[in-house]
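Exercise 3.2. Students should predict the tertiary structure of the chain below and write it as structure tokens, then compare their answer with the key that follows.

Predict this chain's 3D structure.
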Amino acid sequence: MPFFIDTSALFKRYQPEKGTILVSQLLEESQQPIFISSITIIEIISNLKRLSEVDKITTEEQFRMQHSFFYQDISALSITILDVTAENIIKAEELILKRYMKPVDSIQLAVALSLRHDDITFVSSDRRLCKIADEEGLDTITPQD
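Answer key:
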């Protein structure tokens, strides 16, 4: 079963926290296709930069290493990057009209739902987002459980 991984889950790969081992195993051991949305790229880089520049949790050197590791993973793990389309934005609005969601979460879920025919598993560390994904008919994994 292919996986769509949102930013909250994928981030665990680059900044150790609860769920890091599960995310790393999923990425390294799965023989299934792995998808992310194009928006995940900028979210990951922004969050890593925040850790070094704003929160001072990591150093600039650590940021550069994490940044490099992220792009190495995309290539080495054959992660497929899905562009956000106008149809995804329309679907994201529909999701928000059903129930309040953060805009980026609605876009991530809309992109994942566009792969429904592939029997996709939605991977997110956001329990509420996983609950909504379940309601929309997707299998889910929450790597902090």
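Discussion points: The chain has a mean pLDDT of 95. The radius of gyration is 15 Å.
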